[in-house]
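Class, look over these structure tokens:
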Amino acid sequence: MLKTIERSKPIVAQTVSLRRRLHKLMERTLLLATLSIAMGLALPIHAGTHQLLFDEDAIKDPGSLIVKLQDTRAPVSQFIASQLSEDMQWILLGYDGASKPTPQQQKVLLSDLNQLLQIGSLYDAQRFADIQLSDQTLALLTQNPQDEETLVRLNRSLLADVYPYELASLSAQQNSEVSKGIETCRENLRQIKRALEDYQASNTGAYPQWLSELSPEYLEKGMLLCPADATAGEPGVLTEGASDPTLPCSYLYEIWASEKESQQMLWTQEGDMTPIVRCEHHRLNLSLSGKLYRNGPQRDIYNSNKMGLSALGDVVHDLRKQRGDAFLKTQEGREKIKQATEELFFKQFVPTLLNALADEVYTQLEAQLGKGILETPMGMGILKQAIPKIENQIKEQLRSQLEAQLGTEFFTTKEGKEILQQLSVLTLPEGGK
């Protein structure tokens, strides 16, 4: 019995020592808590990752976000789409881009976004090369975060930079946005899309010259006015030359007469994401296929239709406005026009256009003649006859567009003739893309 008691003494001593240490730890913790309260909570208090995650209110425009995740030609969207759950993949596959996402769809989207925030840093220099990052995001990147909380904060900030109209950042200042009447505006654009379809059905697939031609047969004229438009559709508020000549219209119609051919070329390159109607008040676009999405930094097409011929026209317009008509006829002026044409037209616009057209040509020929036919002697003979004719048609159309932008007089000059020489040697890529 005595031996048992003797053996138990060290255990009792250890227990007492442990209790004393726990007591001191509790006292110290209580003291720290008391001090922090007394000092006005001066000690840093961490939010915890759960407070940094998205909630329903932080997804400002779920429909637009889903549309952009469908568009995997944008680098960040391509990466994010690859990380989504199977349920979200099915939603991307079936969403029409115009209706409001169902509560269940929004629930899956919210869950996937919050999972995404916690998988590690989303940042990749190449992936985010075209995204203008906020000061908040840049500051977080310089910290090279490793802990979970800072990583979640960084990812949330990155996503808000990529999808500024769709996702709220943690900064109240960045979240401020005027969205008065946006749901009414969405419905207007849905009605405009239906009216365009009805118009095409009655006019052998042709588009109207102006949106006002839809009224009154296909559309009530009130649908042409955005509720956020303080000018009530006053002409001249939108892009120069694009004001509807018949009715007050708040919306920018992308295929008005002077832009129609260049926009149709853009359709070949960009497909159904190409905007045909824009609301500049809500930064809301109606695409060729009827999808509604907001502007954003990932792709130029989200923000502007200015590329190729349209961008070249803007350069000429700006030069004329800043330096006058006489400057455009000087050697310096002609050189500037030539440089802009080579950069915007030949380097940026034409290669993409020719690749898209070649792909379409070869696909159509195989569809009509049979798969693999173009690799046979007979198919090669057909190509040998067809391709030069197609190339000549393309060159004539491009020359016509250049003359419309630069003027026929320009092509009588040395600089103009050099541009025509570059145009004459254009060829379709073999075998499509």
The chain has four domains: 2-45, 50-175, 182-305, 310-424.
